Structures are given as structure tokens and as C-alpha cells.
Amino acid sequence: MAWNDQVNDNFSYNLGMNFTNARNEVISLPEGENILDSQKQAGKPIDSYNNVFPTNGIFKDQAQVDATAIKREGTVPGEPIYVDVNDDGVVDGNDFIRTSTSNIPQVQYGIYGGFNYKAFGFNFLLQGQAEAETLVFFDQSGAKPEFVFNERWTPNNTNSIYPRAFAQGDAISGGQIDGTDGFADIYYFDASFVRLKEVELSYTLKSDVIKFADIRLFARGFNLATFFSDIWDLGLDPEATGYNNFRGAQYTPLKTYTLGVNFSF
């Protein structure tokens, strides 16, 4: 959808957008008899996250750990508060769900526009997505994002978004719970974002003025800003398919600036 308007001899503008809402659903699939409705793939999108372990936050202190009857054996402050999904009085590898989201965005959109006023020109492009979640999990030694250190649970930071420091393969705070390939839901972040993808400002010197050629001077910027993104706020890219450590991940988009000249004879 787009709109263009020539207001007068000196001013014109344009504005447009595209929008995609792609949904799918597994209608029927043979599944085990003892699987809970919340664990079934039928009724959920293709590639929706499975083996996600629901939590009620993170244990703030030992008093909260002691006051919680149903928890994983060996739980200490700073670890996830797992939910007993199947109500059997035990928190284990059977207490998972299948979510209604994946790392494939259901909604994608772009908004573009610009104007021309006499010799000046301006154009922009916004890009965004919504209805997606991305795994953000780090447990290996080596490089980690800053938030893993600054925003994790400590005795002085009990309202954290990330559990205490833990080693690779930790049975409670780590992934692969009880031999599954699952993670706690606190490691899945909303992958929505709006990005100022491109901005261009230009000025054109007409050939009838300079007696040579039309000369267009321009300055252009790419990936200038990203808004409304939980993952970007962590220093990561919301367009990445996931962060299971840095395996298969990607660098955040480079912010670049360009100066140029176009000649039209």
C-alpha cells in the first residue's frame, strides 16, 4: 500500500507500507496417550517451541526456597521456580509445555516514505516484526554478553531477569533438563522490534544552474536505531534465530554511514 502526492511545484511526498501476518496450525497429529493438552503439537503452529519448562520467576532468597514445597532437589536461591505442570507433586523432565510461538515471526512489516522540497530530498525505511520468541541462553565458558554478568541473580540483585552464575550442564538453571532438549521459559525473549533501517538526505544541483550536469549530493545511514526490543536491549540481535551460547548466532547489524555524489548528464 502506497500514497504519492505532488502538492505543488516545490513539494511532493510519498508514504507506503507492507504488512504480512502469516499463521499456520497443526490440525491433526498422532501423539502419545498420556500427553497433556498443553504438551500437544496439534492446535499449535509448525516449529513451535517444545520442551519449554514454565517458571514462576527466580528464587530470591533461602526463605523463599524453604517456603516452596514443590521444587527440584538441590535448589538454592537464584534458580528458576519451576511449575509442576502435570500436578504429580514432583518437578521433573515431564513438566514441560509446547508454546504457541517460535523464532519465525508471525508478523513482519515495513514503513517507508519521504519528501522532496525544491532541491532537497529525504527518504526513510522502518522495518519490524512481532509475534516471535527467541532462545537466549549462555552457559559455556568464554565470551558472553554483558547482561549475563550484570543482570544475573546475586544476593544484592534479587530482582534479576537471569539466574545465578552456573556451570555448563547445571541440572537446575541449565538447559537440557533431565536429559531433554528443553529450557526454562525465562530463557525465551520476545523477538519483536522496530528498526530504523535506512535514512537518506539529499540535495540536487540542477544542470541549468551549474551548466554541467545534475549533481545529487547525499548522506545515507543504515541500521541507525532499534526500538521496542527486549533482545536488542540485551546487546543481541532480535532477528537472530536463537542464542544457544553463540552457536549459529549472528552479530548485530552494523551501523553504517555513506556520503555520495551522483552525476546525471
Question: Can you give a write-up of this model?
Answer:
- The structure is a single chain.
- The protein has helices spanning 62-67, 146-150, 207-210, 230-233, and strands at 2-6, 11-21, 52-53, 55-58, 80-82, 107-117, 120-130, 133-137, 183-184, 188-190, 193-205, 214-227, 243-244, 256-264.
- The strands form four sheets. The protein has a seven-stranded antiparallel β-sheet with strand order 1-2-6-7-11-12-14. A three-stranded mixed β-sheet has the order 10-8-13, with no helix packed on it.
- It is mainly beta and 265 residues long.
- The chain has one domain (2-264).
- The relative contact order is 0.15.
Number of strands: 14
Q: Characterize the largest beta sheet: strand count, sense, and whether it forms a barrel.
A: 7 strands, antiparallel
Q: Report the structural category.
A: mainly beta
Q: Helical residue percent?
A: under 10%
Note the overall shape: elongated
SS strand fraction? 35-45%
Give the low-confidence spans: none
Instruction: Please indicate the count of domains.
Output: 1
Number of helices: 4
Through-space gap between termini:
33 Å
Widest β-sheet, arrangement of strands: 1-2-6-7-11-12-14
Q: Quick check: average pLDDT? A: 93
Rg over CA atoms: 25 Å
- Strand/helix succession: EEEEHEEEEHEEEHEHEE
